[in-house]
Amino acid sequence: MVMYLEPKRPGSEGSRRFSGYDSDVTTQEWSSPNRLTNQLVVSQNSNKNKINTVDSADRETKHFSSTTTMHGPKRIYYGKRFARAFWILIVGSALALLCFQTYLLLEMYFSKPTLSQVSFIVNEGGMDFPAVTVCSFNPIKKSYVRELNASGDLTGATLEYLLQTNMDAMFLYSNLDRHNLKKTHDQAETYFQNHTDFRTIKFLRTAGYDCGEMFLTCYFGGRRFDCCKYMKPKITSLGKCYELDVQNLAPEWMKKQISPGSGAGLQMIVDAQLEDELRGEDSDASAIFSNIYENGFRYYVHPPGANAELSSEGISVSPSRNVYSAIKAVSHNLLSPREWGNCSENWPPSYKTKLSYSASACRALCIAEHFNKTCGCAPFTYNVDGSENEQLFIFLKYRFSEHRICAPYESITCMDKHMIRKVNGSEYLELPDCEECHMECQSTSYTSYNSYGDGFNQGSLLWLKKFSNKTEAHIKNNLAIINIFFAEMYYTSYSQVQATSFTQVLSDIGGNMGMFLGMSVITITELSLFFSKIFWIIVSRRRRQYMYSKKATEKVKEQQLDEAVKEFQERRSRKNSRENIYSLSNFHKIAPINRAENRLNPTSTSPQSTSIRRKYLYPDTRKNCSPKFHAPGKLYPKFSGFYDRPDFEKSQKSRISYQYFEFS
């Protein structure tokens, strides 16, 4: 605030303008009584500004408390002593509970909770039939080994070592005899040096059974078809297997099962060819196959394009048996990270493969990379990519380089040296966590309910004998019938959904606001405006002056209104007083007038009657009262009676309904 004072300097007649700063006055002037006056003015203005700020804030608070839709402020503002303290406690507690509940709701929302939703979906057009992979427990034909060992240098130990190449590395680590492992490895290396054209992958492909040798015939929905026409070979830990992918390779009528039951599904008649089974006495080998306890077949029901061993559990069937696998499809739909989930739709950036993404395949490639970095090679069982380089025994083309297939000896020695960890005296195999391999967002799995029948009846033996041109003994010892079908024409869908949403959180917060303080979006707007006005009052001098002038103007208007109301009440009081007084006076006059009216003869003109009439009928002749006729709005009707109009003759009487009086 800048003040302009004009003190006179001693010895001068004029005056100069003074800005209020020390540099504008001399010591003599500033030490004069004017200095005290200036300080007093500044102090008064400062106090006035503080008072204006408080008054303006109080005015806004009063207005807010009177008009807000929020519960509580009005009772606090207008409350007295204990009532105000009580309502402050209640409103404060409600506000604390509201803040706590809002915090819990927001914490739950930002934790991204999810829940599972189960649905049963019926396909009216039929169920999409899955892929089926069938493997034989006898991966090597005895006839092929005899042909291959024409030179006689393929010993049983060497053949055993070759068959261990495609076995599961974890199984080898737990079951191999390490004492003889080095010896058999050296023998295999000698055979490879003598036969430079020998390839392990080629050996596994050609030593196994052909499709026509393993499958006699197939049916789908009771309709016969050529199995091998729609099957493709695959190398797994069980050797050479065959996959029937009806969705991608078969005709349209085979893609869906249109009705439940075994008669509408897939049926395969398979031949184990046990006469050509490789036995130890024939090859001087005790080969450790992936399953050493039974003969027959193992088949997998899995989604099309997926790895059979990694995506499903296998089902075994022995020769001379019928197996019925009633399957049910289960669909899993998970949420991606941007939708609060943790699934993956694509391969991690460092993985280079053409396979469809799945968590099991990703983990297999992850372990293969770990083996390659640690051992310089990768076990065969992790060749889920299917890439092969027979010349260098290389597979798994992904990530940064190609990986050489580990021989069994290399896998075991590397794991013993680099992957064994001891904890509390116990040893365990340490493998990578593969945290980048999340669950796939959409996947389908199949659950099978299996039942078995043992042996063939005479009718089926005759039919199979006629159909396959096999002997009855061969049929009983080698053939098995596999039936795969949907038990129901619906599937179960498990969907991961968000447990809450932003709209639901807003709704919950709004409900709590209404329950505790009766608040809404309108109330929040009112609070925002109130606090903005208070802040404006604090920082803006112009706003304080405006509020002060507005208060003064309203005070003047209020005084004027009070005066007008008071004046109106006084006028009304005077009017009521006059009416009451006059009514009381007329009350005593009416009765004599009536009695006089009864006694007098209205037609009489005697002086006595005239005097009586004047005495009783004309009370207006009293002092200070005179009858007059006035314009409407200024006259007051008082009573009815007979009145002798002065301008008429005394003998003429006229009845007057009202007589008007004016007090003078």
TrEMBL record:
<keyword id="KW-0812">Transmembrane</keyword>
<keyword id="KW-0325">Glycoprotein</keyword>
<keyword id="KW-1133">Transmembrane helix</keyword>
<keyword id="KW-0894">Sodium channel</keyword>
<keyword id="KW-0406">Ion transport</keyword>
<dbReference type="GO" id="GO:0005886">
    <property type="term" value="C:plasma membrane"/>
</dbReference>
<dbReference type="Pfam" id="PF00858">
    <property type="entry name" value="ASC"/>
</dbReference>
<feature type="region of interest" description="Disordered">
    <location>
        <begin position="1"/>
        <end position="21"/>
    </location>
</feature>
<dbReference type="GO" id="GO:0035725">
    <property type="term" value="P:sodium ion transmembrane transport"/>
</dbReference>
<feature type="transmembrane region" description="Helical">
    <location>
        <begin position="85"/>
        <end position="106"/>
    </location>
</feature>
<dbReference type="GO" id="GO:0015280">
    <property type="term" value="F:ligand-gated sodium channel activity"/>
</dbReference>
<keyword id="KW-0407">Ion channel</keyword>
<dbReference type="InterPro" id="IPR001873">
    <property type="entry name" value="ENaC"/>
</dbReference>
<feature type="transmembrane region" description="Helical">
    <location>
        <begin position="513"/>
        <end position="539"/>
    </location>
</feature>
<protein>
    <submittedName>
        <fullName>Protein CBG04873</fullName>
    </submittedName>
</protein>
<comment type="similarity">
    <text>Belongs to the amiloride-sensitive sodium channel (TC 1.A.6) family.</text>
</comment>
<keyword id="KW-0472">Membrane</keyword>
<keyword id="KW-0813">Transport</keyword>
<feature type="compositionally biased region" description="Basic and acidic residues">
    <location>
        <begin position="1"/>
        <end position="16"/>
    </location>
</feature>
<keyword id="KW-0739">Sodium transport</keyword>
<keyword id="KW-0915">Sodium</keyword>
